Structure formats: C-alpha cells, structure tokens
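seq as requested:
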Amino acid sequence: MVYHIIIDSFIGPCSISKGIIRRELDKYKGKHVDVLISSPGGSVTEAFDIRTQFKEHGDVTAYLAGGVASAATIVAMGAKRIVM
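struct tokens:
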C-alpha cells in the first residue's frame, strides 16, 4: 500500500499542521487519497480543521494503525472510509 499522506506524529502547528495537510490534499484535488494515521494526538483545534478538510475533499480513506489517540481520532472521522 502506498499512502498519499502519513500522519505519524503530534497534530499541531509545530508538527503535522492543518497547513501541511491542506498542501498535500491540494496535490490530489478530485482524486482518491489514502491516509495512514498513527498518532498520539495533539491539538484539538488543528484536528477539527483537518477533519473538515478531509470531508471537503470527499474521497479519503483513513487507515488507522498503532496508536490513534485523542485528536488523531477526530482527524479520522473526516474520512469517507475508515479501515482499522
């Protein structure tokens, strides 16, 4: 499996930020995106923004592996499909 986006660190402005995710999603406008999520969580406000970006993109599948804590679960809820 090749993932388009990998979220494997803290979610927040100093690590995996909403801006980083926005730039990555823009590369796949109108296309399917596979996202690997294995994160200890982080900023709830950043997570809600990323969740919204996933919902607006539409065709996102989130693959949850390892630890997916707090804010990372919020991010995953924006995906059209979630695989655990």
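The CA atoms of residues 38 and 66 lie 5 Å apart.
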